[in-house]
């Protein structure tokens, strides 16, 4: 990654919508190293007097797979049920101890719109255990987790399961609105004449289906198109994006081979083999990646299939408790969940900059700096999106002109950043990624001897999330 790891100055072109010619950006690794050297590492706990400690006891996910592969015949509640059963098997938590279940999802299966409830019943939980489903685009399971945190912090519950699921292999495809209107009219028609009159109005274009698209309703722009514009605005080259994507796949492959992805549990797919690991981890070469054509802005775009996250199927779940309850039940938690924030920006020009806005806010809430963070886990929607966020975080000009800050927060050091791969390589089932980020952070903190981890993600609608995770004392 020579182009990213040198100490050369880089200035954005004047065509940037952020007038980027007004500020220069040093390389990410150099600036973060200088920033870290200027700070004193703090090892205080983030516990607050009078505030209940909330812990992650453990968490699991079934392998994340390319859509259209082994999970293609299943429904979302099947995947969610598998994640719940995997969590039960790993933690041996009594089902009757679980007081509430929350799942996040994005593209709902209409037959099981409250997928949390259907999955819970299928996994053997009591019909007396409440469950609900939340949706917040790519941070849906982040929202499920923080909703669970709120229930526990308020004293309403002591034991909550939060999770997420996405099944992109079988998304709903609708008839056109004209055909839907006609069909609903037919269901209400009382006479043969009324039915024949409605049928006579049907035209060939009524049969054109409405296909789902990963696009913004407010702008009608696909997320990939936004990523392409963002990469151009921050002068991120095709080579830099391919280099970052290759890094993600290479680190994920290393983590797989070394058994570091401890949140993954096997899933015996009915009628098929047992799935043991994510199937999207495919390190390639810059030469092969460079041969791919632009996927969104043609022919001059820089976002391709190789440097984008792929449509994925998968589910995840984490067991949350008050610390007091966890210890009473005999558990050794993985981590504390501390401060978190949600942010929103302009969905047209700043759709994917959620981490840039959320990171300084969550650090300020906790009284920490970037140098205090030992592990960073950011959602990788696109390589260009990640690199744009890191450049924006490392820019005084951007901080002053767009964030109302006097100075930049600083970019994470790459040797602390997504060290076991990310969404580009492991996969990104929209509703399930947040739990993966939290559990990877907890496991990395223990493995790497750190104390604080920072999770951050962007989401459709120009929204974002960040959360601080603290290692449970060993």
Description:
By secondary structure, the protein is an alpha+beta fold. Among the domains are: 13-40 and 220-259 and 338-468, Peroxisomal Thiolase, Chain A, domain 1; 177-207. Helix content is 35%, strand content 16%. It has helices at 2-5, 28-37, 76-91, 115-122, 140-153, 177-188, 192-200, 223-233, 238-257, 286-290, 323-328, 354-366, 383-393, 396-402, 423-426, 433-448, and strands spanning 10-11, 24-25, 54-61, 65-66, 100-104, 131-134, 159-167, 267-268, 274-275, 312-322, 335-344, 375-378, 452-459, 463-471. The strands form three sheets. Strands 3, 4, 5, 6, 7, 10, 11, 12, 13 and 14 form a ten-stranded mixed beta sheet that branches. Strands 1-2 form a two-stranded antiparallel sheet. Strand 5 (100-104), helix 4 (115-122) and strand 6 form a beta-alpha-beta unit. Helix 3 (76-91) crosses helix 4 and helix 12 (354-366) crosses helix 13 (383-393). The two termini are 36 Å apart. The model is unreliable at 1-42 (pLDDT under 50). Residues 54-324 form the Thiolase N-terminal domain. Belongs to the thiolase-like superfamily. Thiolase family. It is an enzyme of class 2 (transferase). Keywords: Acyltransferase, Fatty acid metabolism, Lipid metabolism, Mitochondrion, Transferase, Transit peptide. One of its GO terms (biological process) is fatty acid beta-oxidation.
Tag the structure with descriptive keywords:
acetyl-CoA C-acyltransferase activity; alpha+beta; 16 helices; Peroxisomal Thiolase, Chain A, domain 1; ten-stranded mixed sheet; 16% strand; 14 strands; Thiolase_acyl_enz_int_AS; 474 residues; two-stranded antiparallel ribbon; acyltransferase; 35% helix; globular
């Amino acid at each position: 990654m020579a182009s990213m790891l040198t100490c050369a100055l880089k200035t954005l072109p004047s065509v940037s919508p952020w007038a980027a010619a007004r500020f220069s950006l040093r390389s990410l690794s150099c600036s973060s190293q200088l920033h870290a050297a200027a700070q004193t590492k703090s090892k205080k706990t983030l516990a607050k007097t009078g505030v209940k400690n909330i812990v992650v006891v453990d968490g699991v996910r079934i392998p994340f797979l390319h859509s259209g592969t082994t999970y293609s015949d299943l429904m979302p509640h099947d995947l969610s049920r598998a994640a719940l059963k995997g969590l039960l098997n790993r933690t041996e938590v009594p089902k009757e101890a679980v007081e509430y279940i929350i799942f996040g999802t994005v593209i709902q299966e209409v037959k099981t719109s409250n997928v949390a409830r259907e999955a819970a019943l299928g996994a053997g939980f009591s019909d007396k255990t409440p469950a609900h489903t939340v949706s917040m685009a790519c941070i849906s399971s982040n929202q499920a987790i923080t909703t669970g945190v709120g229930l526990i912090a308020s004293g309403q519950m002591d034991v909550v399961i939060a999770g997420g699921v996405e099944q992109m292999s079988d998304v709903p495809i609708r008839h056109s609105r004209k055909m839907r209107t006609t069909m609903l009219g037919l269901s209400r028609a009382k006479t043969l004449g009324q039915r024949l009159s409605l049928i006579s109005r049907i035209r060939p274009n009524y049969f054109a289906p409405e296909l789902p698209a990963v696009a913004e309703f407010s702008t009608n722009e696909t997320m990939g198109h936004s990523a392409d514009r963002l990469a151009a605005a921050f002068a991120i080259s095709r080579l830099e994006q391919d280099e970052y994507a290759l890094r993600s796949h290479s680190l994920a492959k290393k983590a797989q081979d070394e058994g570091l992805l401890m949140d993954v549990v096997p899933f015996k797919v009915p009628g098929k083999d047992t799935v043991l690991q994510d199937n999207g981890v495919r390190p390639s070469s810059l030469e092969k990646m460079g041969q791919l054509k632009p996927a969104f802005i043609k022919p001059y775009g820089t976002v391709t299939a190789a440097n984008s996250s792929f449509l994925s199927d998968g589910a995840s779940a984490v067991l949350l408790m008050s610390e007091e309850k966890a210890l009473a039940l005999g558990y050794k938690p993985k981590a504390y969940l501390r401060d978190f924030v949600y942010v929103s920006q302009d969905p047209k020009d700043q759709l994917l900059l959620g981490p840039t806005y959320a990171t300084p806010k969550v650090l300020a809430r906790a009284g920490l700096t970037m140098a205090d963070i030992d592990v960073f886990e950011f959602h990788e929607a696109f390589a260009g999106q990640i690199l744009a966020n890191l450049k924006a975080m490392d820019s005084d000009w951007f901080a002053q002109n767009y964030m109302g800050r006097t100075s930049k927060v600083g970019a994470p050091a790459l040797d602390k950043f997504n060290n076991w791969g990310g969404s580009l390589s492991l996969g990104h089932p929209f509703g399930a990624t947040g739990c993966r980020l939290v559990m990877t952070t907890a496991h990395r903190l223990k493995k790497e001897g750190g104390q604080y981890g920072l999770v951050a993600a962007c989401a459709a609608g120009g929204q974002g999330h960040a959360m601080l995770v603290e290692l449970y004392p060993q």
